[in-house]
Write a structure and sequence with these properties.
Length: 148
């Protein structure tokens, strides 16, 4: 069985929803890692260690640590929501889900551009997620745009 048919008769190819499910799974794992990993292990500082930075300005270090944990939790939650949408309504051909899933490539584009603009190499991972999510979204594009 190559895809599922929704109420509008849209057939969603397996490759499309599998790409989106895979990317959202990887993103949720990345968000979880950001949320639980000690901030010093994931923060690049030039000229000093995280411990030196935290000792020099404990309040800023504490706020940054909290922000990073919250960002990780938000990314995990958003990605799990995307995974659920990819596996249920999108896979079933719900037209609204295809439009809603465009938030994924927008998120990945923003993250990749921001990270790469400051030469943060993790941006290449999000650039890869952007490409994969765009492929997943474009595969069934005709079915969703011109289906009645």
């Amino acid at each position: 069985m190559k895809g599922q048919t929704g109420p509008q008769g849209n057939r969603v190819p397996r490759a499309s929803w599998l790409l989106l499910a895979g990317v959202t799974t990887l993103t949720s794992l990345n968000g979880f890692w950001v949320a639980i990993t000690p901030v010093g292990a994931q923060t690049e500082l030039s000229g000093r260690t995280w411990e030196q930075f935290a000792a020099a300005d404990a309040e800023v270090a504490s706020l940054y640590s909290l922000d990073l944990a919250m960002l990780g939790m938000a990314l995990t939650a958003f990605s799990i929501l995307g995974l659920i949408a990819a596996l249920i309504p999108y896979r079933q051909g719900e037209r609204w889900a295809w439009f809603a899933m465009w938030l994924l490539p927008l998120l990945y584009a923003g993250m990749a551009l921001r990270m790469l603009s400051v030469q943060y190499v993790v941006g290449y991972m999000y650039l890869g997620f952007l490409v994969l999510s765009l492929i997943g979204m474009v595969i069934p594009m005709r079915r969703f745009l011109w289906a009645r």
